[in-house]
């Protein structure tokens, strides 16, 4: 290799290293791009109502923040209340089990193990409580960091919505002049792919939320609206989200009646099978074609590399990666490769 080639290789390695070190910031920027792309659809719909773009952007952000804070107002207090009720029922449940053990001893004879006294149990878990408070402090620090990252994403989203073209032109200029028009075409297809995925994801989320809400209303499980919204939002994360969404309603149903918890589990399994075997193939096949194995593998990969945010953004990242691979590697390189 010549000296210039060695310099180019060193620059490439240094660039990759720098990108890896700031990968969290790049992921936040990508999150802002996805959010701006989704909100831009709402902005365009508002512009059709003869609302100027600046006001349409303001209304879109206002709707997003209203939904975000409304969701936490609806979910968090209800969860805390139900969790407190669950904690209050633990001593009662321990006493009930101890009564059953005493009854079995008197009825059939023999000795059965006694449950630990609740006061002794509390004393034994005091070290765990101290550890819990330490973990709570770490959680508070993480929450502050998450809030700052959310604010950064919101500001970047506003900038991208207000005037996206300069940022697009800047990205295109990183490529050689002969390839810039092609990059611009690929970016247009990426925007279309993200918009299609957003529409498909919203359809699935609304379907799951509606079906979950109706089912829980029939079963008369408390906090139906909160459960339905949570199920719809967590469906944003394929494979893992639906599993997490069943925990809260099962806990609440268990406080009301044990048989309801079993019924809720069965209902959610049925709903997720409908979503997996009918809704997703029907909706996403028309929007974004991703193989199930690719979806699961991408979630594992991006969650390993970027943590929880990587898991959340795994599907849009996969959509963009798929488009770039198809356009650059397959169409521009491999399809034009001729045997010498």
Account of the protein in words:
The radius of gyration is 26 Å and the shape is elongated. It has 340 residues and is an all-alpha fold. It folds into 2 domains: 25-72 and 127-163, no CATH class; 181-335, no CATH class. The model has no long low-confidence stretch (mean pLDDT 78). It contains 14 helices and no strands.
SSE inventory with pairings:
Layout: H1 3-21, H2 23-48, H3 53-108, H4 118-124, H5 126-162, H6 165-172, H7 180-219, H8 224-234, H9 241-245, H10 247-256, H11 258-287, H12 292-306, H13 308-312, H14 314-334
Question: How many structural domains can be distinguished in the coordinates?
Answer: 2
User: What portion of the residues fall into strands of 2 or more residues?
Assistant: under 5%
Residue windows where pLDDT falls under 50 for at least 5 positions? none
Distance between the termini: 24 Å
Fraction of residues in helices? over 70%
- Report mean pLDDT, rounded to a whole number: 78
Number of strands: 0
Biggest pleated-sheet summary:
none
Q: What Rg is obtained from the alpha carbons, in whole angstroms?
A: 26 Å
* SSE succession: HHHHHHHHHHHHHH
- SS field, number of helical segments: 14
Label the structural class.
Answer: mainly alpha
- What is the 3D shape? elongated
């Amino acid at each position: 290799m010549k000296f210039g080639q060695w310099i180019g290789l060193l620059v490439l390695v240094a660039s990759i290293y720098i990108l890896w070190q700031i990968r969290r910031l790049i992921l936040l920027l990508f999150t802002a791009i996805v959010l701006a792309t989704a909100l831009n659809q709402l902005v365009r719909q508002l512009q059709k109502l003869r609302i100027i773009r600046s006001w349409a952007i303001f209304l879109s952000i206002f709707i997003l923040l209203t939904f975000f804070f409304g969701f936490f107002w609806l979910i968090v207090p209800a969860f805390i209340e139900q969790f407190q009720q669950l904690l209050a029922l633990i001593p009662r449940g321990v006493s009930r089990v101890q009564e059953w053990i005493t009854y079995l001893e008197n009825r059939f004879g023999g000795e059965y193990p006694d449950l630990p006294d609740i006061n002794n149990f509390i004393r034994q878990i005091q070290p765990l409580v101290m550890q819990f408070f330490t973990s709570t402090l770490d959680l508070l620090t993480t929450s502050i960091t998450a809030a700052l990252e959310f604010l950064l994403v919101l500001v970047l989203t506003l900038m991208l919505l207000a005037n996206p073209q300069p940022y697009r032109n800047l990205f295109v200029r990183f490529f050689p002049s002969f390839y810039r028009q092609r990059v611009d075409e690929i970016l247009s297809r990426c925007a279309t792919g993200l918009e299609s995925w957003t529409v498909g994801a919203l359809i699935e989320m609304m379907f799951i939320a509606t079906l979950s809400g109706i089912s829980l209303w029939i079963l008369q499980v408390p906090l139906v609206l909160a459960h339905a919204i949570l199920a719809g939002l967590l469906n944003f994360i394929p494979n893992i989200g639906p599993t997490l969404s069943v925990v809260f309603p099962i806990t609440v149903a268990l406080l009301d009646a044990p048989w309801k918890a079993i019924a809720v589990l069965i209902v959610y399994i049925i709903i997720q099978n409908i979503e997996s075997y009918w809704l997703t193939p029907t909706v996403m096949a028309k929007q974004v074609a991703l193989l199930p194995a690719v979806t699961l593998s991408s979630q594992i990969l991006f969650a390993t590399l970027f943590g929880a945010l990587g898991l959340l953004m795994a599907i849009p990242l996969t959509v963009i990666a798929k488009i770039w691979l198809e356009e650059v590697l397959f169409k521009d390189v491999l399809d034009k490769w001729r045997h010498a």
